[in-house]
From TrEMBL:
Gene3D superfamilies in the cross-refs: Creatinase/methionine aminopeptidase superfamily (3.90.230.10)
NCBIfam families: met_pdase_I
Binding-site list for substrate: H169, H267
Keywords annotated in UniProt: Aminopeptidase, Hydrolase, Metal-binding, Protease
The record's free-text note on cofactor binding: Binds 2 divalent metal cations per subunit. Has a high-affinity and a low affinity metal-binding site. The true nature of the physiological cofactor is under debate. The enzyme is active with cobalt, zinc, manganese or divalent iron ions. Most likely, methionine aminopeptidases function as mononuclear Fe(2+)-metalloproteases under physiological conditions, and the catalytically relevant metal-binding site has been assigned to the histidine-containing high-affinity site.
EC number: 3.4.11.18
Cofactor(s) needed for function: Co(2+); Zn(2+); Mn(2+); Fe(2+)
The protein, known as: Methionine aminopeptidase
Record: residues binding a divalent metal cation 1: D186, D197, E323
The keyword ATP-binding is annotated on this UniProt entry: no
Length: 338
């Protein structure tokens, strides 16, 4: 029997970070992983549909409010601010940053985390994600920073808000948060020439035990992944430990959602895979990148909505995601968004 993760993944989704690698590929060799006890993949899909995903609302995105997010002239803006098109990548390999760049990264990442925590406190029953976006935009501008997602490849809002079965890149809209929702809020700021990126999944009201466990395991995946980062470690160890952690707790990692290098650019090398893989590349002191596993209760099958951004689970299972920007140091790893 073939391993359930060694099938060709048919995903034609356009994400913030478009991989240069083909998503129609195998992620690992069958002899390195233990397969679930299903003879056919169709049996596995049927089992997934019968799983109890818990009590929550299936989210259908609401109406996106077309309120223009104004940027005062004194705010330093990224290169894509006017055109929506980021410039070509500056590096073909992960950048080794100097001390000046690292200080800039630390300031941007600290601000991103501060903003994220403030927004999370506002994620309450009855609050719309549009209101969260407006609040985030105001806080970011007050800090003399720019909300990195705004107009990045045409994205219309300042943060991403992904609720329940929405995996990522949810566009803030007029849907009020409900009791029992889980919401991932993804904040990136451009501050003094550098991007800082982080996200967290917050609990709204009384979340059921299935939802709480999903969020806890996702945070554990991120924690375990960061702990294996150090100089000369292969980037592949991140995916190996994330997938093992999720599977050991009965969850599935979504292979299409990647971490990325970050700096004066929003996205760059390396590509950080969160599933078992053998891709090349090793970590060097001065590398900065995000680790952002997306974990689901169900299958890895995804759908892209007509807005060109919102990614949802095909089986309507909930997902959780959390993210840190990290720095490889001479002796280990430093979390910049903590």
């Amino acid at each position: 029997m073939h391993c359930l993760l060694c099938f060709e993944i048919n995903l034609a989704v356009s994400l913030f970070h478009k991989s240069s690698r083909n998503l129609y590929r195998n992620f690992h060799s069958c002899n390195t992983r233990k397969s679930p006890p299903f003879k056919y993949f169709s049996e596995f899909l049927l089992w997934q549909k019968k799983k109890n995903f818990g009590k929550y609302s299936i989210v259908s995105p609401g109406n996106v409010v077309n309120h223009e997010r104004l940027i005062p002239p004194h705010i330093r803006t990224p290169p894509y601010f006017s055109t929506g098109q980021p410039p070509a990548a500056l590096f073909s390999v992960p950048e080794v940053k100097d001390q000046n760049s690292l200080q800039g990264m630390k300031r941007a990442c600290h601000l991103a985390r501060e903003i994220l925590e403030h927004i999370g406190e506002e994620a309450k029953i009855g609050v719309t994600t549009e209101e969260l976006d407006r609040y985030a935009h105001e806080r970011i501008i007050e800090a003399n920073a720019y909300p990195s997602p705004l107009n990045y490849k045409g994205f219309p809002k300042s943060v991403c808000t992904s609720v329940n079965n929405v995996v990522c890149h949810g566009i803030p809209d007029d849907r009020p948060l409900e009791d029992g929702d889980i919401i991932n809020i993804d904040v990136t700021v451009y501050f003094e020439g550098f991007h800082g990126d982080c996200s967290k999944t917050f609990l709204v009201g009384n979340v059921d035990e299935c939802g709480k466990k999903l969020v806890e395991v996702t945070e554990l995946c991120l924690k375990n992944a960061i702990e294996v980062c150090k100089p000369n470690a292969p980037y592949s160890v991140i995916g190996n430990v994330v997938e093992e952690t999720a599977r050991n707790h009965g969850f599935t990692v979504l292979p299409a959602i990647l971490g990325h290098g970050i700096g004066s650019y929003f996205h760059g090398p390396p590509e950080v895979w969160h599933v078992c893989n053998s891709y090349g590349g090793v970590m060097r002191p001065g590398n900065t990148f995000t680790i952002e596993p997306a974990v689901t209760q169900g299958s890895m099958e995804l759908e892209l909505l007509d807005d060109g951004w919102t990614v949802i689970t095909a089986d309507q299972a909930r997902t959780a995601q959390c993210e840190h920007t990290v720095l490889i140091t001479d002796s280990g790893v430093e979390i910049l968004t903590e």
